Amino acid sequence: MARAAYHKAHKGGAPARLARRFAFLVASLLAVSFVIFSVMAAVPGDPAEIMLGTSAAPDTLAALRHQLGLDQPFLLRYIGWLGGVLTGDFGTSYTYSTPVGTLIAERLAVTLPLAGLAILLSVTIALPLGVLAAARPNGPVDLFAALFAQIGIAVPNFWIGLLLILAVALTFGWFPAGGFPDWESGFLTALNALALPAIALAIPQAAVLTRVTRTAVIEIATEDFVRTARAKGATPAYALWRHVVPNALIPVVTMLGMQISVLVAGTVLVENVFTLPGMGTLAYQALAQRDLIVVQNVALLFAVIVMGLNFIVDALYAVIDPRLRR
Which family does it belong to (predicted)? Predict the structure, then answer.
């Protein structure tokens, strides 16, 4: 009975599971888009007045509202905006009088490499540190990992950014204290400008992943199949890296997916600390200037990135855990 119920719940295996997850992803994104548009529509302020100024004539304001479609019913405006997003037309910025898609494309060229570099650094730091800490509990590496995790979790990423500017950029001059030279200035030059912001974003993520990795490795190391491998003659190092670490990756990947939303939120603060022309800075400036069309498109894009990456992480479970492929 129990086995039949299990197979019925998991009918179709991993492909069917991913199809259901993708359908849920699409439905969630539609719901998020409606919430974002509703919140932006409820924000006080008239975009036409923002563009023309409060001294504009009433008939001029009315003509601009009609041109922007602001005089249409709420549902028609939402459908028009969502249809434009699906076809690549994100509207025009009230402040810059520039297509929002152009602004977003320019800023993504900074934010996506920054986020990717931060994820790469956090995983590179956390996995070896967490595994080595679990290999010898209460040893020197374990004590260092505990201290690193405690500090990394306690200190916000923007404070880490400020400390890096003071301690590294201004003191030694190894990295720029802020700004971005553009990718046309050279790959290494641009990467050098992203190094400190990426470290500031990576340290809190690495602290959490280190703690999760250590706990998962210690828990898996006590399983029967590990003791069986040791009894058959496997060395401690072979048992650790061949049997323990691959099985401990599942909770690590889960936590990495959960941390993506924190990483995206952190880019808003870190980009402003380092004056990087990324998505976070664009969202902050648009909100300060009440450029609501930019804010709602950036918010939707952040939601797409977070939910899309979580879907990819969910798909990785089938690669990590062979049981999900049956």
Answer: Belongs to the binding-protein-dependent transport system permease family.
Q: How far apart (Å, rounded) are the C-alpha atoms in residues 278 and 262? A: 16
Please indicate, yes or no, if residue 304 is contained in any of the structural domains: yes
CA distances from 208 to 84, 148, 149, 253, 320 (A): 39, 10, 6, 12, 20
In a domain, 5, yes or no: no
In a domain, 79, yes or no: no
Residue 45 domain flag: no
H or E element, residue 202 = helix 187-221
The total domain count for the chain is 1
> 158 and 273 in contact (C-beta within 8 Å)?
yes
The H or E element spanning position 53 is: none
Q: Cβ-count burial of 182 within 10 angstroms (0-12 exposed, 13-18 middle, 19+ buried)?
A: middle
Beta strands in 100-194 (DSSP E): none
Q: Which residues pair with 92 in a beta bridge?
A: 99
Nearest alpha carbon to residue 313 among 261, 262, 256, 248: 256
Take residue 76 and report the two structure tokens written for it: 């028609």
CA separation for the pair 260, 186 (Å, rounded)? 28
Torsion of CA 96, 41, 310, 127, to 10 degrees: 60
For 257, the domain range is: 96-325
User: Nearest CA to 165 among 151, 148, 179, 154?
Assistant: 179
- Helix crossing, 292-320 with 279-288: angle to 10°? 150
pTM across the whole model = 0.80
Task: List, for residues 179-238, the tens digit of each pLDDT value.
Answer: 888 888 888 888 889 999 999 999 999 999 999 999 999 988 888 888 888 888 888 888
Q: What is the CATH number of the domain that holds 122?
A: 1.10.3720.10
Under DSSP, is residue 92 helix (H, G, I), strand (E, B) or coil?
A: strand
Give the separation between CA 71 and CA 54, rounded to whole angstroms. 18
Q: Could you report the per-residue pLDDT of 47-74, keeping only the tens digit for each?
A: 666 666 666 777 777 777 776 667 778 8
